[in-house]
Specification:
The chain is mainly beta. Helix content is 11%, strand content 34%.
Length: 718
């Protein structure tokens, strides 16, 4: 990845819906510029998005379309912050107005709005807020401090409030239940009650906002923390919202007779423990009322909600591939990529490159290059895309960060600008995957492009047209539907070329109610930047147990014959060939390959073909015993460290670590199918050396051409 800075700050950006589309279908572009004005708009096909000298070179061609040649860009803001709204119109309080809710502050020192009740004109009638940990209720111009002493961080409290409109008084209380720690309860044992006089006789209600306030008639998310068991009493009409219902959806379900259901906005975190969780259950579906709470964040951003800039209907004969909207205005430009599948019922190629859209969503706008991580240091010299992410935190975070209150980012969305999903933006994921696309084009075998979300939406039907699936460099995130479809396709004779590392690692989930969003629970071990809280390892989207596929009984070794072994981001290295493989049933893979001193992949982007993240062949974890190991990489620097799930305690590892190994393997599968696994993210960087005239490219070409050949693979004799 490049450290070359750009002197001109980035001004233009955008996103499109969807990321993957069939030829002949429409696609919407939503773009913005901090310097409003006209911009040239083109549709381009990207063969390679890698501008580095070690790669094949950046290559794109302009494609004819019905797009306008010029568009007028405006500055479209990003307004993060999750919240919930309930329409109260038609209700009027003439005698009393009361509410009750549980609240837990995760950033108590910050000023924030917990709940707002608005009138029919959009003004705040009652507002529950906190500043410096002090909970305050404001009724009109009257401010009522519920308790002078600040509340404790990450502790549940119950707030009750009643407005007696006949007497013009308001009463409020704040209580908390005993915790498991007597020491923590020393100053929290007493409840607080207060009252005041108000100048309010009746009110026609408009809207309730949970986790936010009303600004010029618009609801705004303005809260970091959790709200549970909210209820509202308007005269004799009671609303009682069940936050544990419709866990995968947007609804705020009212269990009262009025059925005043509401809606969540910007995707707050669900399936998190509420004030009544007692630890007796870990799965929310077993006792849902203990998860009757929602976690709001001021930086949640599900949908940017930008207005449409342009719509294109793709030609039905448009070849499958990687495409982008290209915007240009003077020295400013942006490319917003998307993926085109063959038109419905069109003839397909036998080979498809699987773009890791789930991984792209997980890494969307990651901040590791300037905030650092456990496995990578921060940098000060950034490309324009990452400099833009640093300068615009309102873009929302990736699943590799924590929210400002310390909670892990469990949800990520593509309905916003994703700056690292740009050609050349960084050396992870998308840009390396375009190197693999360029390699496949070089072979001339002919291939289509599909994406992870296509498999999740269509299951086996998305894979069925193809004899060969080529993965991208880092297919890390997989849903159950995706993994089931891949396994079924393999059993039917499909041939898998796994050209990456750390694949099939984390289980993720999607919801039809939140299209474009993905959920991740980093539960129970694994290389991770954060981990789920107690009682929060099950997805809100579908209720499945989250975490690693290895901990869910489906290790990647069963899919690709190898599993994640180690990571290190120093210089990549070579593979040592296995001499016996030249006489094995996989000897055809070595045709035309001349290892130098028993080594292959000795150079390439990053130093060699083995690096970044590597996978190991291990029959204990489900690797097929009949697999042929073609080559192994072991000569790594001390930065290449075994993954933490491999340890059962604190271990002083003697180097070289025998479990830090990357294995290139081949084996046959049912129905005449087969698997080839390169087991290294850095494999992509060695493909284009010397104009594709190298050992790694020759091996990979041999595999893709043989895999595309319909002749079945015969399993070895037992």
């Amino acid at each position: 990845m490049s450290d070359t800075p750009d002197d001109i700050g980035k001004l233009i950006t955008g996103y499109c819906e969807p990321w993957s589309v069939r030829a002949g279908e429409p696609l919407v572009l939503r773009a913005s510029s901090h310097a409003p004005g006209p911009a040239e708009l083109s549709l381009v096909r990207i063969s390679c998005g890698d501008p580095t000298k070690a790669g094949p070179g950046f290559a794109e061609i302009e494609v004819a379309s019905d797009l306008p040649s010029s568009v007028e860009l405006v500055d479209q803001p990003l307004l993060p912050g999750s919240y919930g709204t309930v329409d109260l119109s038609g209700l009027a309080a003439t005698a009393s107005l009361g509410f009750s809710l549980d609240v837990l502050l995760t950033l108590p020192d910050e000023a924030q709005t917990i709940m707002t009740i608005g009138d029919a004109d959009g003004r705040a009638v009652v507002q529950l807020s906190a500043s410096d940990g002090v909970v305050v209720i404001r009724v009109g111009e009257t401010e009522l401090i519920v308790r002078p002493r600040p509340v404790a961080s990450h502790r549940w409290y119950t707030v009750h409030c009643n407005l007696d409109l006949a007497t013009g008084t308001v009463q409020a209380s704040l209580t908390t239940e005993p915790s498991a720690s007597p020491g923590r309860d020393l100053f929290e044992s007493d409840s607080a009650e207060t009252s005041a006089t108000i100048d309010l006789t009746s009110v026609s209600l408009g809207q309730l906002v949970l986790g936010g306030r009303v600004d010029n008639g618009r609801a705004v998310g303005d809260f970091d923390g959790r709200i549970g068991r909210p209820s509202l009493l308007v005269d004799d009409d009671r609303m009682n919202w069940q936050l544990h219902q419709d866990m995968a959806g947007r609804s705020i379900v009212d269990a009262g007779p009025l059925e005043r259901h509401g809606e969540f906005h910007q995707l707050p975190t669900r399936a998190i423990t509420g004030s009544t969780w007692d630890g007796t259950e870990q799965r929310w579906t077993h006792s849902p009322d203990q998860w009757n709470a929602v976690h709001f964040h001021k930086d949640d951003l599900y949908d940017a909600g930008w207005t449409e800039t342009a719509t294109v209907t793709l030609p039905t004969n448009l070849p499958s591939g990687i495409y982008a909207f290209r915007l240009q205005s003077g020295d400013q430009s942006d490319r917003i990529p998307f993926f085109v599948r063959p038109a419905e019922n069109a003839v397909t190629n036998d080979v498809a490159l699987l773009m890791s859209s789930a991984t792209y969503i997980a890494y969307a706008n990651h901040r590791m290059l300037f905030e650092g991580a456990d496995f990578i240091g921060s940098r000060t010299r950034l490309r324009p895309e990452h400099d833009y992410i640093r300068s615009h935190p309102e873009l929302g975070r990736s699943m590799y960060e924590n929210h400002p209150d310390g909670s892990g980012v469990m949800f990520s969305s593509r309905l916003r600008p994703v700056l690292n999903l740009r050609p050349g933006a960084d050396g992870w994921n998308f840009t390396p995957d375009t190197d693999i696309n360029a390699f496949l084009e070089h072979t001339g075998v002919g291939h289509d492009v599909i994406a992870d979300e296509d498999i999740h939406a269509e299951g086996l039907a998305a894979l069925a047209p193809y004899r060969v699936i080529v993965t991208s460099s880092h297919p890390e995130y997989w849903s159950t539907t995706m993994l089931d479809a891949l396994a079924e396709w393999q059993r039917g004779g499909g041939r898998l070329m796994y050209l990456g590392g750390n694949g099939f690692y984390w289980r993720v989930a999607f919801s039809d109610a939140w299209p474009g969003a993905m959920e991740l629970r980093r539960a129970e071990d694994g290389v991770r930047n954060w981990q789920t809280g107690d009682g929060e390892s099950y997805h809100a989207f579908g209720g499945e147990y989250g975490g690693m596929w290895r901990r869910n009984g489906r290790p990647p070794n069963e899919v690709a014959g190898v599993g994640f072994a180690a990571q290190g981001f120093g210089r990549a290295t070579h593979f040592d060939v296995e001499p016996d493989s030249f006489a094995s049933r996989a000897a055809w893979i070595w045709h035309g390959v001349e290892p130098e001193d028993g080594k292959i992949g000795t150079s390439g982007l990053g130093g060699g073909a083995a690096g970044q993240e590597i996978d190991r062949y291990d029959t204990r974890l489900g690797s097929p015993e009949h697999a042929v190991v073609l080559a192994s990489a072991t000569q790594f620097g001390p930065d290449m460290v075994r993954t933490k799930e491999e340890f059962e305690g604190s271990v002083d590892v003697t180097l070289p670590d025998p479990y830090v190994r990357g294995d290139v393997i081949f084996y046959e599968t049912p129905g005449g199918g087969a698997v080839f696994s390169a087991s290294s993210i850095s494999w992509f960087g060695a493909l284009a050396r010397n104009g594709y005239d190298n050992d790694i490219a020759q091996m990979t070409t041999n595999v893709v051409r043989r895999f595309a050949d319909p002749a079945p693979f015969e399993p070895p004799a037992t």
